[in-house]
Amino acid sequence: MENVIIIAVLLVIVTAIVMYLYRAKKRGETCIGCPYARQCGGKCGENNLKTDNEKT
């Protein structure tokens, strides 16, 4: 019985994470972990890459 409860809780957590990711992508956020995800237009991290490439 305890195993069923643990599996159910884990299933709810995984489902909540998947739904969050789905809704974030539907809203147009390209970089979900980025605080500026709606503003950057999918270029998160490119500024860091440009500065790294310019240094070499």
Layout of secondary structure:
Elements (H helix, E strand, L loop, with lengths): L1 H25 L10 H4 L5 H10 L1
- Please tell me the overall pLDDT: 77
Number of helices: 3
N-to-C SSE series? HHH
N-end to C-end Cα span: 59 Å
The helix-and-strand class reads: mainly alpha
Total number of beta strands: 0
Portion in beta strands: under 5%
Cα-based radius of gyration, to the nearest Å: 18 Å
Largest sheet: none
Describe the global form: rod-shaped
> Which percent range fits the helix content?
55-70%
- Give the low-pLDDT segments: none
Give structural notes.
The chain has 56 residues and is mainly α. The chain has helices at 2-26, 37-40, 46-55. The N and C termini lie far apart (59 Å).
In short:
The chain is mostly helical and 56 residues long.
Keywords, please?
single chain
